[in-house]
């Protein structure tokens, strides 16, 4: 009994400490309803009781004040461990904004420009070919290779128009097969995980694969931000994780954000259900207990709800938090503007993320174009992204609102939870 009481006391103190990451406020002080925010707990506890997700941590801030910070369910349902507020999550593609901010900091340092060819820093990408589909005389798609007309740029990496792909996603069978042969996609093993490769080896293997589109012409979600991380390393002379720790995590007081979980923190690592209830397939997430071969800027990060809330609050405030500036207001404005315009899309960013039209892409985030078209509440200029294991965030400058949902629930149900938490937060606005 004493051990149980001690554990519960430690859990409460841990949650209280992390809840102070932003100054707290009663929801009504910043135009939100406590009663209506309580619907979040009702909905998520019901999902947990039905065995659809193991647990979650959700944090919401408005006007710079923390108004909602709750944990639900299990950190590890298999062991019965409850979910603490300071649980550490594999954030997968929510690593991309961190890596993109790192690259933007180098731009502000005068070390790189968005218009720079990637080959200036990674010469392996100097002479790329593009896989072009054509119909053969029998109407079957055949693929031929042509030289790329334009070099991929740093801007292309940030906005996913570099012509690169994910083997897990692309519809081009020639590219998918090449990814498998290169060991950059391992079907039936684990998705979005190339962290065993050394950085130079990753670059060499990827540069030998044809591009799926002419650079600068089509938005296709890809390994581009992994390549961006290699650029950050080349220019800074530091490992990506070290750069992020020194220039982003330490200044913003992000205590648990990085690319591995130290042994002392492993009791806080959130785990998925063994089997995805929507598909019946096993859940296999990346191993974050050991230092990886490379720091994957696209999918390798870990963080907590309170850490990530501080990071996006800094973006909401124009690149600064509590008097510490990591980016200029003008750089944040550039990152959160529409960077696609009339360029092609294999699928729109909003449809890929939450099953909603109305979103384009900036530099590192999906960006909402207007109040209409989208099937979820939000504002023009809102930006967001998510992770393959179930994490999600958004920033709404017009409403002065930031929110983070952390869970380890990969699978096809993710867009539903992303839409649901958005609706549950916006319906609580009363001013």
* 3D shape: globular
| Oligomer designation | single chain
By helix and strand content, what is the structural category? alpha+beta
CATH superfamily of the largest domain: DD-peptidase/beta-lactamase superfamily
Task: Write up what this structure looks like.
This protein has 13 helices and 16 strands. With 431 residues, the protein is of the alpha+beta class. The chain has an 8-stranded antiparallel β-sheet, with helices on both faces. Strands 4-8 form a two-stranded antiparallel sheet. The chain is globular, with a radius of gyration of 21 Å.
What labels describe this entry?
single chain; 2 domains; globular; alpha+beta; Methane Monooxygenase Hydroxylase, Chain G, domain 1; 8-stranded antiparallel beta sheet; Beta-lactamase; 431 residues; 31% helix; two-stranded antiparallel ribbon
Walk me through the topology.
Blueprint: H1 2-19, H2 34-37, H3 39-49, E1 55-62, E2 65-76, E3 81-82, E4 89-92, H4 95-108, E5 129-135, E6 141-147, H5 154-159, H6 173-181, H7 199-207, E7 218-219, H8 224-236, H9 240-252, E8 301-303, H10 305-316, E9 320-321, E10 324-325, H11 329-335, E11 344-345, H12 349-354, E12 359-361, E13 366-368, E14 383-386, E15 392-396, E16 401-406, H13 414-426
Parallel strand pairs: 7-11
Antiparallel strand pairs: 1-2, 1-16, 2-3, 4-8, 5-6, 9-10, 12-13, 13-14, 14-15, 15-16
Helix pairs in contact: 4-8, 4-9
Summarize the structure.
By secondary structure, the protein is of the alpha+beta class. Helices cover 31% and strands 17% of the residues. The strands form five sheets. Strands 3-2-1-16-15-14-13-12 form an eight-stranded antiparallel beta sheet, sandwiched between helices. A two-stranded antiparallel sheet has the order 4-8.
């Amino acid at each position: 009994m004493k051990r149980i009481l001690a554990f519960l006391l430690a859990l409460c103190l841990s949650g209280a400490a992390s809840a102070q990451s932003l100054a707290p406020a009663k929801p009504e002080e910043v135009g939100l309803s406590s009663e209506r925010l309580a619907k979040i707990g009702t909905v998520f506890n019901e999902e947990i009781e039905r065995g659809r997700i193991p647990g979650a941590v959700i944090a919401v801030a408005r006007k710079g004040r923390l108004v909602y910070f709750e944990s639900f369910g299990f950190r590890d349902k298999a062991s019965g461990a409850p979910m603490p507020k300071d649980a550490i999550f594999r954030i997968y593609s929510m690593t991309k904004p961190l890596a993109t901010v790192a690259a933007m900091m180098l731009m502000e340092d005068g070390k790189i420009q968005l218009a720079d060819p990637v080959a200036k820093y990674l010469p392996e990408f100097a002479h790329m070919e593009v896989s072009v589909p054509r119909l053969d005389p029998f109407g079957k798609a055949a693929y031929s290779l042509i030289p790329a007309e334009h070099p991929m740029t740093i801007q292309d990496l940030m906005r996913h128009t570099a012509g690169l792909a994910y083997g897990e996603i692309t519809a081009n069978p020639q590219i998918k097969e090449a990814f498998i042969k290169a060991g950059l996609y391992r079907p039936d093993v684990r998705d979005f995980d190339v962290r065993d490769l050394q950085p130079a080896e990753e670059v060499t293997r990827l540069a030998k694969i044809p591009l799926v589109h002419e650079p600068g012409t089509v938005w296709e979600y890809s390994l581009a931000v992994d390549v961006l991380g290699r650029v950050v390393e080349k220019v800074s002379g530091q490992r990506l994780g070290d750069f992020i720790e020194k220039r982003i995590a330490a200044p913003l007081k992000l205590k648990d954000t990085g690319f591995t979980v130290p042994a002392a923190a492993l009791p806080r690592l959130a785990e998925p259900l063994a089997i995805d209830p929507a598909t019946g397939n096993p859940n296999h997430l990346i191993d974050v207990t050991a230092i990886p071969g490379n720091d994957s800027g696209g999918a390798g990060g870990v963080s907590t709800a309170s850490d990530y809330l501080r990071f996006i609050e800094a973006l909401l405030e124009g690149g600064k938090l509590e008097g510490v500036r990591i980016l200029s207001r003008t750089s944040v404005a550039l990152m959160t503007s529409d960077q696609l315009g009339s360029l092609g899309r294999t699928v729109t960013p909003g449809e890929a993320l939450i099953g909603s039209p109305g979103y384009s892409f900036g530099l590192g985030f999906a960006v909402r174009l207007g109040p209409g078209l989208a099937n979820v509440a939000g504002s023009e200029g809102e930006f967001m992204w998510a992770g393959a294991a179930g994490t999600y965030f958004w920033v709404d400058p017009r409403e002065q609102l930031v929110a983070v949902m952390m869970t380890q629930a990969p699978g096809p149900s993710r867009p539903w939870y992303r839409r649901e938490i958005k609706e549950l937060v916006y319906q609580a606005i009363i001013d």
